[in-house]
Amino acid sequence: MPVDLTIISKPIPYVGITLLQLLTALAVLAVGWLVTRLVTASFKRGLRKTKLPEIVVEFLGRFLSALLYVAVILLAVRALGIGVGSVVVGLSAVIGLILGLGMQDTLTNLTAGLWLAALRPFDKDDVITVAGHTGKVKGLGVMSTEILTGDNVLITIPNKLVWGSPIVNYTRMPTRRVSVDVGVAYGTDLGRAITLAVNFMRSHPKVLREPEPSVVITALADSSINLQLRAWVKTEDYWEVKGDLTRGIYELYSREGIEIPFPQMDVHIKEMPG
What is the C-alpha to C-alpha distance for residues 56 and 62, in angstroms, rounded to an integer? Predict the structure, then answer.
């Protein structure tokens, strides 16, 4: 039975677009989406062979993806019979209006993203603190940076806030210093307490021999003499060693009879003469 092509060639009422044009536009969007995914994946694979940092590869991949999606949308618009030139003029007018109203956040975020990708204050999977948030970097996009917190919450931060804030990178350096604070009672033999702590840190298999572990007196507090254990470790071992030292120094001092006092206050009551 022959297909009546006049049905799909007739304009849809009140729209002025034929069913054929609509189907063509949808096909362009579907094929364009697939091609964009394939091209972006191939582009990123090629960049990884150049040994570029992963955060730069991620940024360039997202940037290319955004450009390709814009091109696909323009092709779909053209398939609908709408002049691409008029669409571009319309977009330009909208952008001009946005800039005229002082809403330059888009361009600011884009520029900040370019600087972050170029100067690389962090790489993918680095643990950072920025704009009041701490987490592992999951991606650097054209407009925003994504970090994953320790309790598995994904936070998206505009690039302008990332670039405009101090960035603390906890994992960039290969080694870190673990610091554990502990208080001992007044009257404690400090030489013995310090020697025990230093030998304890030296015995830990993941504490580095250079620089040497050390113990310093940090304060003569109200209820205790405060000591700080300092040991250098590989960055990936930081939290494990910190937990081991915190628990271990408590157990060691308890076994050796060294008191770890809790805050206390002496209250003297003076009777008034009747």
Answer: 10
* Per-residue pLDDT, 1: 47
Residue 61: φ, ψ to 5°: -65, -45
**In CATH, what number is assigned to the domain containing residue 42?**
1.10.287.1260
d(C-alpha 118, C-alpha 127), whole Å: 19
Name the residue range of residue 155's domain: 121-169
Q: What CATH number has the domain bearing residue 243?
A: 3.30.70.100
The yes-or-no verdict on residue 14 having pLDDT over 80 is no
% of the chain beyond a pLDDT of 70: 81
From the list 92, 241, 269, 248, the residue with the least C-alpha distance to 179 is: 241
Which residue, chain included where needed, has tokens 């060294």?
A: 258
Q: Tell me: do 73 and 134 sit in the same domain.
A: no
CA distances from 182 to 156, 192, 195, 208, 245 (A): 37, 15, 14, 21, 11
- What values do phi and psi take at 103, rounded to 5? -105, 75
Question: Both tokens of residue 199?
Answer: 């030998």
pTM value is 0.64
Interval 115-160: pLDDT, tens: 888 888 999 899 999 999 999 999 888 888 999 999 999 999 999 9
